[in-house]
Amino acid sequence: MLNTEQKLVKLSDVCEVKIGGTPRRDVGKYWKGGSHPWVSVAELNGNIIENTKEKITDDGVKESNVKLIPTGTVLLSFKMSVGKVAIAGTNLYTNEAIAALLPKKNIYGKYLFYVVPTIAKRGAVSGSLGQGNLNSKKIKELEIPLPFKNNQPDLEGQKFIANKIESLFLKVDEGIQKIDKANSDTEKILQGQLVNIFGSKLPTNWKVVPLGKVCKTTSGGTPNRAIKEYYGGSIPWLKSGELNDNKNITESKELITEKALQNSNAKILEPGTLLMAMYGATVGKLGMLKIKAATNQAVCAFLKNKSVSNDYLFWFLYFYRDSLIRSAFGGAQPNISQALIKNIAIPIPYKDGDPDIKEQEKVVERLNKIKSHISKIEHILLSQENSFEMLKPSIISYTVAGKLVTSPQPVAKKEKVNIFPIQQAIGAILKRFERGEMIVAKILYLGQTIRNVPLNISFTPQNFGPYDQAVKKALTAGLARNNNFFARKGYVYGLSQGSEKLFKYSNSNVLRTMNGFLDTMMPYFQRASSADIERLATICEIVREKKTTDENEVYRRLSEWKPGKFTLQEAQKTLSFIRAQGWDKILIQ
């Protein structure tokens, strides 16, 4: 445990700041045959830089404003991508968008490496230079927290904090690696099932036939872009880039007109039509129409037929896609033609000499169930990965706030919270839509803060916005067999058989006020993403805490709380919503 005092000091007080430069590009002798490493912002990735993409010559060094940066120096970007860092692994030079931070006496470079980027990003957000940039003067004026002992910079304290951060980061990385492996393993489960069905020894009643023998294909076209009246109509028109193995396509990015159909190769396709991208970045990707739509010429459409179900065909092409691309095109940019597709050999179950649709449906049902289970697992893993990704900025934020290393403090005794009213409010939410714990917590926060729902929850700032353990306790107790209020469905919660006990006292103040709040807010909650709701609750708490709706002040605090997660435009949009609802008056009072 470390006992130090933390002070704010200007960056220029703890390190020398050197700004790099770029030798003239039109002078060949500055670049050709160069041997001196020269770093650009693109190469700053939290790494140790020993080699660089470009090198400059002795003449480039002598006849330009580049400066020699010694090994071990922290490199910081301060233009465009503010806050990117690296450490010089050798003597090198940098361009003019990079500041080299050379530590003074009793200053630990690794401490600067971890702490300065967050301060720099914050300075860029609150600055007046535009574009989220800094300049040399602004960098030197940045204030960073620094451990002091006996009124001197505490070198050992800095090392302790830097080592602590590094240790925590390693644990975060290990967690992310385990999640990535789990994601990879889930996909292997599906691939294993596909191999068992389509790639191993087939049952005796199955036949392998050319795809063109059992189904018809077609493609679309692109109406003339120069004719404006062809676009902006009411007919969905899909391009190959919109296909991403989605079995429920209900919209398109562009709409075309009837006249466009009449004067191009685009044609209306019926719901249930299977689509495959024939070329472009998404080559081989699939999609299933749930609406009438047209496509461009880069999409192959498999028309519905009586021999092979398009759901069955979807799973076979999903299985076969990689082999098709790899064997047919090698390393070249692949383009799949309809002729090639029609020659694909597809295994199909037969009965009494005809394709057996019922057996195909059994295969589809089996694979859909597996995919459904895998999707639930993937959602849980994604949620966990997002949590891990936010840990690093949170660790740094705690360091910047002076909270990472502290002396032990007596734990304040928390007032006991009655969880049944919280469970009633959660029930009111889940009765309308099923959501995960974090979103339920944000809606509870908004209900309590905006509509005075009497929950007595002590919300505090956490990684994913305002939160309190009372929410988890209420959900966990509601899952218990003796209550059976809630049911967990993958990463979300729903109501269970015992939930009627929550609504038994329909005149309760909690239910009355919570339902009133939800009646007003459900149109918003139903169309909002999880990130939207998280941002709304977080900004409401910032407005309440800071007693202001000033956009720059709110966004500065938002960037401290959740570094890099939300844009200024998103914050402005949320603040506009808060003002339109009149919530700012409630929060600031």
Automatic annotation (TrEMBL):
Keywords, alphabetical: DNA-binding, Restriction system
Record-level Gene Ontology MF annotations: DNA binding
Domain Type I restriction modification DNA specificity: 7-169, 203-377
InterPro entries: Restrct_endonuc_typeI_TRD, Restrct_endonuc_typeI_TRD_sf, Type-I_RS_S_subunit
Superkingdom of origin organism: Bacteria
Listed CDD domains: RMtype1_S_Apa101655I-TRD2-CR2_like (cd17244), RMtype1_S_MjaORF132P_Sau1132ORF3780P-TRD1-CR1_like (cd17515)
GO BP terms in the entry: DNA restriction-modification system
Tagged with keyword Metal-binding: no
Family: Belongs to the type-I restriction system S methylase family.
Protein name from the UniProt record: Type I restriction modification DNA specificity domain-containing protein
